[in-house]
Specification:
4 helices, two-stranded antiparallel sheet
């Protein structure tokens, strides 16, 4: 088993997920694809959960990888420990994205209900009476147009990406610890007679 190859495979999966998370978070700043005033954007978007959490923290983990660990090579030992530390940070970034995305889905978007004031009309909903399960309440938001669907799709996408990234980074933590303890590659050695 080669933990270095496992790390590279996880990195190949995480890189496009991180890019998608960054793009999804950026799209939340433009409700329904329109430019709007910063004070008319849902407050949870400003936590940068897709850019920082699921994007940068996860992406930085997989910039380097080594194979064929040598216990006497101090730099490779440091590299393996750094890999575990960065995987922990990546998992924390994924969890952060999941938490903020969940809050964004539960509390709903900031919107104009028709009187010109931007409010959070769904923020006091209970979980059993949430707007997510009652589409007839969506008509309360007049501007920006389709803001509810925009937020639901993007926050759900970020929730899914953050979950996958957190799981993969946790797997990488275990993988890195195994590589640190046992070495990154176990090779069959030829014995000459």
């Amino acid at each position: 088993m080669c933990t270095g190859k496992c790390s590279k495979c996880i990195g190949v999966v995480l890189f496009p997920l991180a890019v998608c998370a960054i793009i999804s978070n950026l799209l939340l700043y433009f409700p329904n694809g329109n430019v709007t005033d910063p004070d008319k954007i849902t407050d949870l978007v400003w936590f940068f959960h897709g850019i920082l959490g699921a994007g940068i923290l996860v992406r930085e983990k997989f910039c380097h990888c080594c194979c064929c660990f040598n216990y006497f090579n101090f730099l490779k030992l440091i590299n393996m420990l750094l890999s575990v530390l960065l995987a922990v940070l990546g998992a924390a970034g994924g969890v952060y994205c999941v938490v903020i995305s969940s809050l964004g889905l539960i509390s709903g978007p900031l919107c104009d209900t028709g009187d010109g004031d931007y409010i959070y009309p769904f923020r006091n909903d209970t979980l059993t009476d949430n707007y997510l399960f009652n589409q007839t309440t969506w008509s309360i938001c007049k501007k920006p147009e389709n803001v509810i669907m925009w937020n639901i799709v993007l926050f759900s996408l970020l929730l899914g990406i953050g979950t996958i990234e957190a799981v993969l980074c946790f797997i990488q933590v275990i993988n890195g610890l195994i590589g640190f303890i046992c070495g990154t590659c176990m090779r069959k050695r030829k014995v000459s007679i």
